[in-house]
Amino acid sequence: MRVEKGVIVALGYGKYFRSDRIVGLEPIEEGRGPGRRTNVYVEGLPQAIVASRSEGAILRDLTETPKEITKAREQYELLSDIVETIAEINPLLRSIIRDQGKWDLDRLEERIKDTLAEEEHSSDTA
C-alpha cells in the first residue's frame, strides 16, 4: 500500500484533497448518514473535513494506483522496449527498411527517446 503523490481524492459533494496531504480517516459513529460518513484529517487544517464517502472508499482511492497512472506506466515501458529493439537493428537493415518500407527508424528512435525523456523530466518535477 502506498499513497501516490499529487493524486486528487474525492471526498464527496465537491470536496477534493491531495492524497499525500490526508493524514487520517475516522468513520463517523454518531449522526452518520448521507453527507456524513467519514472525518478526514488533512495536513495543515485544524479540524477534520466531513466527507460523504465511506472511509473504505476513500482509503481505496488513497492506496490504489489510478488507472491513468497504471496505463501511462505501461505505455512508458512499451516505448522503452520498442526503442531498445530499434537500437539493435543494424545500419544496413535500417537503410533497407527506410528505402523499401518508407520507415525512418532513426527518426522514430529519436522521437521515442524525446518522449521518454519528457516523461522522465515531468515525473521528476511532480
Q: Can you describe what's shown?
A:
This protein is of the alpha+beta class. It has two domains: 8-63; 67-125, no CATH class. It is 49% helix and 18% strand. It has four helices and five strands; from the N terminus they run βββββαααα. The strands form two sheets. The protein has a three-stranded antiparallel sheet with strand order 3-4-5, with helices on one face. Strands 1-2 form a two-stranded antiparallel sheet. Strand 4 and strand 5 form a beta hairpin. Helix 2 runs antiparallel to helix 4 (105-125). The longest helix is centred in the middle third of the chain and has 21 residues, at 67-87. The model has no long low-confidence stretch (mean pLDDT 86).
How is this fold's topology laid out?
Blueprint: E1 8-12, E2 15-18, E3 22-27, E4 38-42, E5 49-51, H1 55-63, H2 67-87, H3 91-101, H4 105-125
Antiparallel strand pairs: 1-2, 3-4, 4-5
Which blocks of ≥5 consecutive residues have pLDDT under 50? none
How much of the residues is beta strand, in percent?
Answer: 15-25%
Shape label? rod-shaped
Q: How many helices? A: 4
Task: State the share of residues found in helices, binned by percent.
Answer: 40-55%
Order of helices and strands: EEEEEHHHH
The largest sheet is: 3 strands, antiparallel
The tally of strands reads 5
Structural class, please? Answer: alpha+beta
Number of domains as seen in the coordinates: 2
Q: Nearest-angstrom radius of gyration?
A: 23 Å
Arithmetic mean of pLDDT: 86
Strand order of the largest sheet: 3-4-5
Our measurement of the CA-to-CA distance between the termini, rounded to an integer number of angstroms, reads 20 Å
